[in-house]
Design goal:
alpha/beta; Rossmann fold; globular
Length: 142
């Protein structure tokens, strides 16, 4: 069984089709059978905010956002508290010029000793700079 920290960009790629949707869906398919996907507790709020932005600024239908939210709530994500990660996340954020909420994913991967899966280039750069293992989403094949 593999354990990964996945960030909101990966979760949203599962919900809203993009270049790596097939790879992300393969990752999530593995999570339903053997792998474990970990996110900080606020990830679902972060993703729901993306849906809000899609409705308000990109023309997504409210009904589609509501459907995607139902799917989001059913994803096999293990949510963990972020509180203990905040001091280090602030430090990483300041050193790497990365928002704290993105830095929390980096801290979780570091503390759990597992790879971070992200589509966020700034986040992956910061993770690499701090010695966090990265797992490219392209490694997951349908």
């Amino acid at each position: 069984m593999a354990v990964y920290v996945v960030d909101a960009s990966v979760v949203m790629e599962y919900l809203i089709s993009g270049s790596f949707t097939d790879n992300v869906r393969a990752l999530f398919a593995q999570a339903t059978t053997s792998d474990r996907l970990i996110v900080p507790e606020f990830c679902l709020v972060e993703c729901t905010n993306v849906l809000w932005k899609q409705v308000c600024f990109q023309g997504m239908a409210v009904s589609q956002a509501q459907t995607l939210l139902r799917h989001l709530r059913k994803l096999p994500l293990l949510r963990v508290p972020a509180k203990a990660a905040l001091p280090v996340a602030l430090s990483i954020g300041l050193q790497q010029r990365l928002p704290v909420y993105d830095s929390v994913y980096v801290v979780l991967a570091s503390r759990l000793g597992c790879p971070l899966v992200s589509l966020d280039q700034l986040q992956t750069r910061a993770a690499a700079a701090t010695g966090v293992l990265l797992k490219p989403v392209s490694d997951f094949t349908p």
